[in-house]
């Protein structure tokens, strides 16, 4: 079976790629009813769920035991570009054609991810035949979802695709709920038989109760799992995640191709939350801390790559030359107050009373971080015959 692998950027039979990877197609995700990235993790060995930050405010997972920095997004790329830097709302699969889990050191090609690997999202593209799809979901926990996809050609050169999804979710836990909107317009322009321009965009707004879950007493789960130990009056924590990507591809001839892309991502997280901190000696009084978060991130990335094939008398070379230039700005403004004798903030885990303590907050962090990065990649996979090949790469 031939697949276009983001590991090498060329199309190969699976056994010709000298890396360990797992590939989930659209058909597999539909069969397994995958709606979020989290749903797909159970289908792949060596990839595990991690803390999703207060009940699902972003995707987080580990590869082979190596976790990523949740403050800068999980190890993830999109169409071969590092686009998950900064604050990121959970990805919606209504816009995903396939998932490619790249395991091991191949993440070095992107300068992204941990030692264990990373995830590549292959997005859906506009089609040249009109198609529409409507999906409705509901369950007994009052969780509702609707998604709509439509793609069609405008003329012989232009095609578009629109995807919309909305979720309204309650929870088995008291006072916990979430709501989510997703909108993605896309456009493809066939400039010529050799040149194509693609525009992708995604607008995600996610809000919900920040919920750290169940607290333990002497490492034992004794409280009612339905009990929420935060404060309903804190309201929702909100995430806005807006993403734009422009891709240009040009074929010089059947053996040589140029790809260029520019991505821009703008995101914000804002809201109050009351979180558990420490259980007192009586085994029922939980000390808490209250926080206000106002985080913003802005990421810009430009990439150009040249792919080519050269046949010699003794081998076939598949060559990749690429360069990247990018900048990430990340700002964190946080107010916080912990429980103390002068500022009480506790709750009884067996008989909770809400609204009793909503302390005023004081500044805790106010940081601005800027990361600039430049990279040059060189790769050559040499095929000696149908049985033997070797791949060299440097970044």
UniProtKB/TrEMBL annotation:
Single annotated GO MF: siderophore uptake transmembrane transporter activity
Location in the cell: Cell outer membrane
Keyword Transport: yes
UniProt-listed Gene3D superfamilies: TonB-dependent receptor, beta-barrel domain, TonB-dependent receptor, plug domain
TonB-dependent receptor-like beta-barrel domain ranges (all copies): 189-393
Topology term for the membrane: Multi-pass membrane protein
Domain TonB-dependent receptor plug: 14-117
Domain of life: Bacteria
A cellular component term, taken from the record's GO annotations: cell outer membrane
Main location (coarse class): membrane
Keyword Transport: yes
Pfam families assigned to the protein according to its UniProt record, in alphabetical order: Plug (PF07715), TonB_dep_Rec_b-barrel (PF00593)
Keywords for the protein's UniProt record, in alphabetical order: Cell outer membrane, Membrane, Receptor, TonB box, Transmembrane, Transmembrane beta strand, Transport
Protein family membership: Belongs to the TonB-dependent receptor family.
Designated name of the protein: TonB-dependent siderophore receptor
Organism listed in the record: Acinetobacter baumannii
């Amino acid at each position: 079976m031939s697949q276009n692998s983001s590991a090498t950027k060329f199309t190969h039979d699976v056994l010709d790629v000298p890396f360990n990877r797992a590939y989930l197609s659209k058909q597999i995700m539909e069969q397994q009813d995958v709606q979020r990235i989290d749903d797909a993790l159970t289908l792949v060995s060596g990839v595990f769920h991690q803390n999703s930050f207060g009940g699902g405010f972003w995707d987080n997972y580990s590869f082979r035991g190596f976790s990523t920095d949740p403050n800068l997004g999980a190890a993830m790329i999109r169409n071969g570009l590092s686009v998950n830097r900064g604050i990121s709302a959970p990805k919606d699969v209504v816009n995903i054609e396939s998932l490619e889990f790249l395991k091991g050191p191949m993440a070095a090609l992107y300068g992204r991810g941990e030692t264990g690997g990373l995830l590549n999202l292959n997005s859906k593209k506009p089609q040249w035949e009109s198609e529409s799809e409507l999906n409705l979901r509901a369950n007994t926990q009052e969780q509702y979802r609707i998604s709509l996809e439509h793609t069609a050609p405008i003329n012989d050169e232009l095609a578009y695709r629109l995807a919309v999804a909305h979720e309204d979710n309650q929870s088995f836990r008291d006072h916990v709920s979430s709501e989510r909107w997703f909108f993605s317009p896309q456009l493809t322009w066939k400039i010529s038989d050799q040149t194509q321009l693609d525009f992708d965009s995604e607008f995600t707004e996610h809000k919900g109760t920040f919920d750290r879950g169940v607290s333990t007493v002497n490492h034992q789960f004794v409280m009612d799992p339905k009990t929420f130990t935060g404060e309903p009056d804190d309201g929702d924590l909100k995430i806005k995640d807006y993403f734009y990507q422009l891709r240009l591809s040009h074929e010089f001839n059947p053996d040589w191709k140029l790809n260029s892309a520019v991505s821009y991502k703008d995101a914000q997280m804002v809201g109050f939350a009351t979180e558990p901190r420490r259980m007192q000696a009586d085994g029922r009084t939980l000390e808490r801390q209250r926080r206000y978060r106002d985080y913003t991130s802005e990421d810009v990335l430009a990439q150009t790559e040249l792919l080519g094939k050269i046949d010699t008398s003794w081998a076939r070379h598949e060559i990749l030359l690429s360069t990247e230039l990018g900048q990430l700005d990340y700002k964190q403004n946080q107010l916080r107050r912990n429980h103390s004798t002068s500022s009480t903030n506790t709750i009884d885990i067996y008989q909770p009373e809400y609204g009793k303590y909503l302390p005023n907050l004081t500044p805790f962090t106010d940081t601005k971080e800027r990361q600039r990065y430049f990279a040059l990649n060189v790769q050559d996979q040499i095929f000696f015959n149908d049985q033997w090949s070797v791949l060299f790469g440097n970044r």
